[in-house]
């Protein structure tokens, strides 16, 4: 069965990168990386979430690439990065370190934005040398550090063991998602987006999520179900901002508030009324503005020169 492709028109159509390269992770896994925008401009690194790809950041890339160097990469098994048997928070951290090392010169600092599992990647890498060297500030969108399944409100049941058990089985299902049909859009919108999400937003997200291989979706669901990055949050020692939707059923605002309390330098939590889990798509201008403001505040204009490399 052929997998859906990203939308090709509108603000959620992925722009063509200036160049592409392959970063090699600690275990030898190849990581697909895209670079957008002018060389030498302030750098932004984007880490997408579970079942997504670089296409998820299309709106942010299109806006920021005018005057930023935007680096986006596909997590293991997602997008154009091959699947790997190594699925763990350590692997997430290894891969982000590899991307930072491959795209930023020594001493160059960037704003790192992570959505959902991408935010968890930021937390997992917080004590790593490459993160400490290159992270100037972080934006955490719709994410959490632990208790993802017990806190999920995808099922309209009272909190407790029954809801946790059923939610875990749904999120960890091996069933194929199939083609993007009207019914599939309705299900995805209910589970991951706010009720007022526009059809173009739902279509863009559905195509991205349905393109993720079911084996990859299943493998990473186990990592998320047992996630415990509470200690790692306290190692994120750079300025951090948090964005969450009040209608987020996968990582409800309780997670954002816990992160804000644990982060050493939290600069604020933005709760978006009626917005669901897909904040970069549902509130693209807000997320882009937050990234741009973090760059302005924390990325020095005096950066090491960035060499121009050939595309891989």
TrEMBL record:
The keyword Hydrolase is assigned to this record: yes
Keyword entries, A-Z: Hydrolase
GO function terms (MF aspect): hydrolase activity
Residues covered by the AB hydrolase-1 domain: 44-287
PANTHER family: BLL5160 PROTEIN (PTHR43433:SF1), HYDROLASE, ALPHA/BETA FOLD FAMILY PROTEIN (PTHR43433)
Protein name in UniProt: Alpha/beta hydrolase
Organism expressing this protein natively: Streptomyces labedae
The organism's taxonomic lineage, starting at the top: Bacteria, Bacillati, Actinomycetota, Actinomycetes, Kitasatosporales
């Amino acid at each position: 069965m052929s997998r859906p492709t990203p939308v090709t028109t509108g603000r959620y159509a992925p722009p063509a990168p200036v160049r592409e390269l392959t970063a090699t992770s600690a275990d030898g896994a190849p990581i697909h990386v895209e670079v957008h925008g002018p060389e030498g401009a302030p750098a932004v690194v984007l880490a997408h979430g579970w079942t997504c790809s670089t296409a998820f950041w299309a709106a942010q890339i299109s806006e920021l690439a005018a005057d930023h160097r935007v680096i986006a990469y596909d997590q293991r098994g997602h997008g154009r990065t091959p699947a790997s048997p190594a699925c763990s928070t350590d692997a997430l951290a290894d891969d982000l370190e590899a991307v930072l090392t491959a795209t930023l010169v020594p001493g160059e600092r960037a704003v790192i934005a992570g959505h959902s599992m991408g935010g968890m990647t930021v937390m997992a890498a917080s004590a790593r040398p490459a993160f400490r060297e290159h992270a100037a500030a972080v934006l955490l969108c719709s994410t959490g550090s632990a208790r993802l399944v017990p806190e999920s409100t995808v099922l309209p049941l009272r909190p407790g063991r029954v809801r946790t058990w059923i939610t875990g089985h749904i999120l960890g299902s091996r069933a194929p998602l199939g083609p993007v049909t009207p019914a599939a859009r309705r299900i995805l919108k209910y589970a991951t987006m706010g009720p007022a999400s526009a059809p173009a937003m739902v279509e863009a997200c559905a195509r991205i999520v349905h393109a993720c291989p079911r084996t990859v979706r299943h493998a990473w669901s186990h990592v998320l179900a047992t996630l415990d990055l509470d200690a790692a949050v306290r190692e994120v020692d750079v300025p951090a901002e948090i964005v969450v939707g009040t209608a987020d059923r996968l990582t409800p605002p309780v997670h954002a508030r816990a992160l804000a309390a644990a982060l050493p330098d939290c600069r604020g939590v933005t709760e978006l009324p009626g917005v669901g889990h897909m904040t970069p798509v549902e509130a693209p201008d807000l997320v882009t503005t937050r990234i741009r403001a973090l760059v302005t505040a924390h990325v020095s204009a005096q950066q090491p020169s960035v060499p121009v490399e050939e595309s891989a």
